Amino acid sequence: MRAPYSLLLTVLLLAGCGGEEFQDLRDFVKTAGEDMRGKIEPPPDVKPYEPFTYENDTALPDPFKARKSDARNANRSGQNQPNLNRPKEELEDFPLESLKMVGYLSQKGVGHAVIRSAEGKIYRVKAGNYIGLNFGQVSSVTENEIKIKEMVQDSVGDWSERESNLQLLIE
After folding, report:
1. What gap in Å lies between CA 16 and CA 5, rounded to an integer?
2. In this predicted model, what pLDDT tens digit does every residue of 31-48 receive, in sequence order?
3. CA-to-CA distance for 91 and 21, rounded, in angstroms?
4. Tell me, what DSSP letter sits at residue 14?
5. Per CATH, domain 70-82+89-167 is 3.50.50.60
6. Phi, psi torsion values for 101, nearest 5 degrees
């Protein structure tokens, strides 16, 4: 009695698989991407390199010479120049990038920063001390930072002031 039922079940399963009820789906999948082609724009035209020939008799300035006149430089050479004859302090042997502010202390109302060098040695600085390779002078010390005024020399010999700071390093 089991045999007719299993035969009937097998026939029904085969009949269900043989139909073409999904033919419209198959046709859609085949035709859906036919008109979708990617378009790549052509690369832009590359202009050929045209070398510039510099002639000394043109009105253009020589790009390899300083643009300031020698008379002007003679008048300004000492302006803003730091004192090169004063004795150097210990922290002037280190670039600012290698120094870290690791602490702050106040002594008799004067703020002092605790500095650690790249070698691990500890120093104490206050306003007025010199620090760094560029004639940097500490202008102020707070609990969080040290403000420094440095004197740097440009290619024609003029000295200019720039401000730097060291932030408190929190580890």
Report:
1. 17
2. 887 777 777 888 999 989
3. 88
4. H
5. no
6. -85, 120
DSSP states of 45-81 as a string?
A: PPPPP-PPPP-TTSSSPPTTS-SS-HHHHHHHTTTT-
Provide the b/e sequence for 118-140 (b: ≥16 CB within 10 Å).
eeeeebebeeebbbbebbbbbee
CA distances from 41 to 32, 45, 80 (A): 24, 12, 58
Q: Which residues 6+ apart lie within 8 Å of 158 measured at CB?
A: 73, 76, 77, 79, 80
Contacts made by residues 2-11, CB under 8 angstroms, sequence distance 24+: none
pLDDT < 70 regions, the chain: 1-2, 12-20, 56-58, 66-78, 171
> pTM for the whole thing?
0.54
Note the maximum CA span of the chain.
Answer: 123
Domain ranges within the chain, ordered by starting residue: 70-82+89-167
Q: State the amino acid at position 146 in one-letter form.
A: I
